[in-house]
Amino acid sequence: MEPRDIQLASMDDMVFENRNKNYGAYILRKIYNKHVTISTAIASGLFVIFIATPYIIKAFGDAQNKEKLIDLSEVVLDQAPQQDKNEPPPPIVEPPPPLNSTVQFTPPVPVEDNKVTENRVVTVDDLEKVDAGPATVEGDPNGVDRSLDDSNKGPVEVDDNTIPTYVEIMPEFPGGEGALMAYVKKNIVYPQVALDNDIQGKVTVDFVVGKDGTIRDVKVVKGIGFGCDQEAVRVVSKMPAWTPGRQNGRNVAVSYKLPIKFSTR
To answer: Which of 3, 73, 94, 183 has its CA 20 to 30 A from that of 129?
Structure first.
């Protein structure tokens, strides 16, 4: 090797001077640095991927949970039976006929002399003209027997212990059915334990709309567990007062069922 070439020569050139450079050892030594560089780059890349994998998995899982929305579009409310618009008006109630006169008549009862009253004794002739009764009352001689009068019996009261499911005018959430769906969708929170276990289904809640429109006696009649039942009860219990149902012109308590669908799709 010439002196001027020594400065430009590599260690491999000097070691293999005057030797067979086609031998494999020379080639391996020439490409050694290149292989070391490539190996270092690959090892560094694998190390970075290994460290970053848990963070990537966690970020991907959080993104999926955010995409799991509560589908409350299928809130099906019980509908009241359709009323016949062609139903004839109620008949006109005629005023009750006049009542006849009565005379006080009670069976004779033996009493002591000092307790005898001055009441006039009713005779058989008196009873031919008027009817016997608990008191003497002036009436129309052509009137009907007072025992047939039912005008003072009053309306028949509904047993408050029996809560109907359907009434003439059903109770209504403030703003109607659409407002009810919006309220449930806004206030309900999908339980995290249900999300983690991919729990889906429909929770049916039964409750009573009182005479004043307040919500009471909230209970689950069909649930799916994992916190969804409790969440449905919580949201229904906090509802504002409804417009109460009406039957026979007065407010009545009504039993109501509300299905709420929990879905992550």
So the answer is: 94
Give residue 46's region: left, alpha or beta (phi > 0; psi -120 to 50). alpha
What digits encode the pLDDT tens for the residues 136-170?
666 666 666 655 555 544 444 445 568 999 999 99
Q: Which CATH class is domain 70-81+163-262?
A: alpha beta
DSSP state of 137: B
Tell me if 262 sits within 8 A of 228, measured CB to CB: yes
* Every domain of the chain and the residues it spans: 9-67, 70-81+163-262, 102-148
Report the alpha-carbon distance of residue 118 to residue 126 in Å, rounded: 18
Question: Which pTM does this prediction carry?
Answer: 0.43
Instruction: Using the CB atoms, write b or e for 136-164: b if 16+ within 10 Å.
Output: eeebeeebeeeeeeeeeeeeeeeeeeebe
Is 203 in a helix, a strand, or coil?
A: strand
Give pLDDT tens digits for 234-243.
999 999 999 9
